[in-house]
Amino acid sequence: MLEARSTIVVPGAERLFDLLCEHFAEHGEVRRRDDRGEVSFGYGTAVMAARPDALHVEVAAANPIHLSYLKIGIAEHLLEFHEGEAPAIAWIGDGLAPGTPLPWFRELTVAGVEDLTPHMRRVRLRGEDLAHFAQGGYHVYLLFPPKDRAPVWPVMGETGLPVWPQGDDALTRRVYTIRSIDVARGELAIDIVTHAGEATPGSDFARSARPGDIVGITGPGGGEAPDARRLVLAGDDTALPAIARILEDLPPDAEASVILEVDGPADAIALPSRARTDIRFHYRWGAEPGTLGRLPEALRSLDWDRLGPDVFVWAACEFADFKAIRRYLRQERGLPRDRHMAASYWRRGRAGG
C-alpha cells in the first residue's frame, strides 16, 4: 500500500473539513467523529483531521495512479472551498515526483472518422499502452492543443495537482465517453455530437479531424454501468455514447427501459444489448435541444409500479432537464441517492461541445 501525507496550514480548517466531508459523502463512504474523518473510495482512503490552524491529510492506495487521484481530490476541492489566498500544499511520502508526465495521460493520433448520424461523428484514435483506459470508468478528457503549435502536455505538480500549460500553449479540455476500445490494436473510439456555434472545440475537432491529427487524453473515471438488474436510462444526444456502453455491458438477466431525445429518426442509432430492453426515441423535429422537456415528461409517464422499488435510474442531459429530472426523482418519487444518478452533461448558453 502506498501512502502520503500533508499538513496544510490554512485559516478556517474546521470549516474546510466540514465542506470536504460533505462533498466526499456524495462520492464515497465517510466515517466522521468530531474533527476526524475517514473517506473510503473504491480505489483508496483519505483520512482528514482538522486542527485550529491546519488540515492534516493522509491518503493511501494500492498504486501510484490511485494515490494521485486522492491527492488531486483533496487539493482540488480544498482550493475550491477555501476563501482567500491559496494555501501551500506539499506531500510527503509515496507518489509521483513533480514534473513527471501524468501516468493517466496518453498522446493519440486520429486513425479515422465516420459519420454515424447527421449529428454524431465517430473519431477513431490510436496510441500506445491503452490498457489503462479499458477499466475504471467510461469517461475521459480529450485535450485539444492550440492550432499550429506543437502540443505541450501536463505534468505532475508539487501540490498533487497536474500543472497545465498556460498562455499560447493552453489546452482545451472536454469530457467524452470511450465508445469502444481495442487494447491489442492500440485503438479507441469516441462518438462526438456535432453542432454549429462558437466555442464548440469538441464538435469542431470531430468535424475537421484528419488521420494524423494529434490529441491528448486523460482518465478514465466515472460512468460505469450501474450495479442493478432493473434500470431506467434517459438522455439526449450527448448521453447516447454512455447509454450505448451501459446497454452493451448489462448482463442477460437485466432489464432496461430507455428514453432518448434526439432530433429525428436519422439520429436514432441501434443500441444492442444482452439485456431485455424497451427503447423509445423522442424527436425534437428541429427544435433546440434542451427546450422541450421531453425527458422529464417521459420519465413521469413510466409505469413505476411495474418497475418496482429496486429500479435504478440513470439520466444525463441538458441542465434544465437535469434539474427537473433530479427534482422529480428525489422529491416526488423519493428515490434514495443510491438508486439514481442524474447529471448535467451540458448547459444552454454556456461554452461546451
From TrEMBL:
GO terms for molecular function: oxidoreductase activity. Residues 103-227 form the FAD-binding FR-type domain. It holds the Pfam family DUF2218. Gene3D superfamilies: Alpha-D-phosphohexomutase, C-terminal domain, Nucleotide-binding domain of ferredoxin-NADP reductase (FNR) module, Translation factors. InterPro entries: FAD-bd_FR_type (IPR017927), FNR_nucleotide-bd (IPR039261), Riboflavin_synthase-like_b-brl (IPR017938), SIP_FAD-bd (IPR013113), SIP_fam (IPR039374), SIP_rossman_dom (IPR007037), UCP028291 (IPR014543). Belongs to the SIP oxidoreductase family. This is NADPH-dependent ferric siderophore reductase, contains FAD-binding and SIP domains.
